[in-house]
Amino acid sequence: MAANPETMNEKITRFSLNGKQIEAIGDETILKAAERNGIEIPRLCYKEGYRPDGNCRVCMVEIDGERALAPSCCRKPTEDMKVNSDNERTVHSQKMVLELLLSDMPQQGKSPYTLNSELDFWANRYGIYDPRFRERKQPTPDLSHAAIAVNLDACIQCNRCVRACREEQVNDVIGYAFRGKHSEIVFDMGEPMGESTCVACGECVQACPTGALMPARNVGLVEPDKKVESVCPYCGVGCLLTYNVKDNHILYVDGRDGPSNHSRLCVKGRYSID
After folding, report:
1. 61-113: pLDDT as tens digits
2. Nearest to 260 by CA among 237, 244, 227
3. What band does 181 get if pLDDT is binned at 50, 70 and 90?
4. Taking the model in full, what pTM does it have?
5. End residue of a domain, out of 31, 64, 86
6. Could you give the number of structural domains in the chain?
7. Does residue 91 sit within a domain?
8. CATH code of residue 21
9. Are 84 and 107 in contact (CB under 8 A)?
10. d(C-alpha 198, C-alpha 54), whole Å
11. For 17-56, b where at least 16 C-beta lie within 10 A, e where not — what string?
């Protein structure tokens, strides 16, 4: 079989991670190289396929010779760099960030809007259940949209929904406004989501790691009996999707990675079940 010229020209960077010699291929970040080598680093603002933002600070690692910890999701390794993601200093930092984020949840320890929150997953993995810190003032839920419930009391401001709307779907409805403790996710110029220019593609719902954006009707709190992989029937593009089914009733739809949609869906594929 002929060699791929692109693969042959791919840059290889060799570095040490937790005492193990691994390789980063091309422009891989520390997090991506670790993931490919079976080394787990926690993450929340990072999502495969999205531009890494480095703002949740859960994926921090220690780099030999550097004073401050670095976000592994957007830091690229250099030759012979020595990185630690599981020593005492980094684990302390990772756990502290998770505890701070959990303290912002409405129930101070678990998202009340979904059974499978990514934040809950990492908190359980690190054994964090009862945050020591005082919770913030909780915003009022926005239920103005027919298909999407906005629960900003569960928002950790990871900006995944902003990148999903602005950079992936190029709708530019969701933005980030204000500063400090007043900062928050907004729709258009601060309208309720149901009155905004949202086209209900649901990419923000699929991107959210905490349940702050969820399908309406609290279906995120219902455990599906089964998941059925299928193809969207509404046009000829052939987007792949997964039906989440309970008692032979479709609860909600997730996009599935396929050549025509790469896990994206439009309003028809995601919400026309209703």
Report:
1. 999 999 999 999 999 999 999 999 999 999 999 999 999 999 888 776 678 88
2. 237
3. confident
4. 0.87
5. 86
6. 2
7. no
8. 3.10.20.740
9. no
10. 26
11. bbeeebebeeebbbbbbbbeeebebbbbbbbeebebbbbb
Handedness of CA 203, 26, 258, 238 (dihedral sign): positive
Domain boundary residue, one of 28, 51, 86: 86
What is the amino acid identity at position 161? C
Length of the chain: 274
Q: What is the DSSP letter of 233?
A: -
Range of the domain at 35: 10-86
Residue at 29 is within a domain: yes
- CATH classification of the domain holding 271: 2.20.25.90
Encode pLDDT of 131-174 as tens digits: 888 877 778 899 999 999 999 999 999 999 999 999 999 999 99
Token code pair at residue 217: 């009707």
